[in-house]
């Protein structure tokens, strides 16, 4: 059959429709065919200067998602048989829409269902259908349609057969209120996704990337987050009873009000996290790194510092403070570390006491309600201002010790500093302390940090 002899050639419009729908250039389209053709050949087809040879017809039919018989009918007649109903006609029109146009149709359909009183099912059915086709199809669609936000809220993943979402790209997806038991999200990308109110008991999020993910009020009992990355995630009011959070990154994570009873937090990194009002009872905390954590109002008790691996079960030392658990366990196994820590606290307390005494009794008034004490040869300088106290020395590039008005102490004391501050008090208390001879004698008695 010579398609040109059967009336108007349908190929120019058909080729353009295929390229537009699949977002292909003429060069990319040419590479899809076997044997391959050139971009110039595709351009000739679209300008109606030539028609594809029959060896390409089955391939072009597949790209149009037509049966071969339908394709031949279309080429001969310019259209398929007339649909038997308005619904079939509408469906035929929908088949020719590109993804963005389909999105508009889907949203309009959802609004229509709502107006008819259908409630409780808010997921985009097109998105759900794509989800069911597997990770490869889904991720390719996400890559080609980055501006589209997947809407999968409210679905029962178990009921829909979506029990394994490992390696899926679900970034920024609306997954509010999804449910299902033992759903797999291993290695999934869930950055900035919204799973608020999700009910995902025993879900597996191992090695998932969940930066900024919303999980507030989520039901995550016995969920598995081994090595997941949850920086900046919102798990406020979430139920994480018996959840596994081994080696989990929880930097700047919001866990306020979360229930972490019997959670496994071993080797996790909890930095600048919000745990205000959280429940931390009977948790495993061996190796947990805790830095600048907010714990106001948190219930903390029976935090187990033992390793408790399958091959090494030991009775740990229990703590009622997440901040101190690691320190308490460390010093209990190392008597020398305990003595060193105890001596450090004693030195800091003594240094603050001596510095406060020197600046108050022998310091000079300064502007802004401050006082300054300078030791002979300016070996030490102590300044007190509005409750802050700072001790410095010219041979150190950082403060030796400081205490702010809230009682926070930062210490870099060197060997000999505490003894020198005590010696200064003894010296300043002598009546002849102001004489030049005594000053010179006192200079020789002050030990430097390097000789302490």
TrEMBL record:
Residues 431-452 are annotated as: Disordered. It comes from the Bacteria. Residues 15-71 form the HTH cro/C1-type domain. One of its GO terms (molecular function) is DNA binding. Pfam families: HTH_3 (PF01381), Pentapeptide (PF00805). CDD domains: HTH_XRE. Signal peptide: none annotated. PANTHER family: BTB_POZ DOMAIN-CONTAINING PROTEIN KCTD9 (PTHR14136:SF17). This is Pentapeptide repeat-containing protein. It comes from Symplocastrum torsivum CPER-KK1. The lineage of its organism: Bacteria, Bacillati, Cyanobacteriota, Cyanophyceae, Oscillatoriophycideae.
